[in-house]
Amino acid sequence: MRRRLRTVCLGTPAEVIEVRDDLVLVDYGGIRKWVRSPFLKLEPGETVMVHAGFVISKITREVYEDVMEIWREVKEALRSTSQTSSP
User: Fold this and answer.
1) Which of 1, 6, 12, 26 has the most CB atoms less than 10 A away?
2) Got the DSSP string for 25-65?
3) What is the pTM of this model?
4) Which of 74, 75, 33, 72 is nearest to 55 (CA)?
5) Is 24 helix (H, G, I), strand (E, B) or coil?
6) Model pLDDT for residues 58-69, shown as the tens digit of each residue
7) Can you tell me whether residue 70 is helix, strand or coil?
């Protein structure tokens, strides 16, 4: 019997900074990148989830803030772990 591998797509929260047709400049908490949004019409200030260079959904500001807080906690935990495991 063959087992299927399960994969998880990781969406990253971002804030829309600028829109040019289907090109969207987003801010990932200080890092800005151009991504594509061919299906969603967006406005600066909106918050979105991005995966593989494409906007996959709009999210509320509340969801954006919650996810960004989780990312901050993960980064801090990784930083703490790397500092305590150094020789």
Assistant:
1) 26
2) EEESSS-EEEEE-SS----TT-EEEEETTEEEEEE-HHHHH
3) 0.78
4) 33
5) strand
6) 999 999 999 999
7) helix
Checking phi first, is residue 17 left (phi over 0); if not, alpha (psi -120 to 50) or beta? alpha
Look at the chain and count its residues.
87
**Side chain identity at 36, as an amino acid letter?**
R
**pLDDT tens profile 1-29:** 677 767 667 899 999 999 999 999 999 98
First to last CA, the chain: 45
* Ordered domains of the chain (ranges, CATH): 12-84 (2.30.30.140)
Query: 74, 79, 76, 68: which is closest to 29 by C-alpha?
Result: 68
Does residue 26 contact residue 68 with C-beta atoms inside 8 Å? no
- 71: Cα separation from own chain's centroid: 9
